[in-house]
Amino acid sequence: MSESSGKEYRLSSAQVSSNVADEVVILNHDKGVYYGLGEVGAAVWSALESGPKTFDELCTLVTEEYEVDSTTCEADVSALLDELVREKLVETDA
Asked: Which CATH number is correct for 10-89, 3.90.930, 1.25.40, 1.10.357, 1.20.1070?
């Protein structure tokens, strides 16, 4: 289990996003930089659009929707969330 499993993640107010096909395009207002998320990243983003989610909730969503083992999923979702937090697109309570 990851150290981030109990954290709750939410979208930052410093961004605006749009769904384009199976991808998400995000603009960071503060930096003026665009980001793109592929299909799995878009699924995580979409889940966060409906409200704050824990790391475990996001991993459950990904493993139920995509053929991925839990170890790989946890590593990939953790890396995605770390990058989104670093870029100030997502915030966490911890």
From this structure: 3.90.930
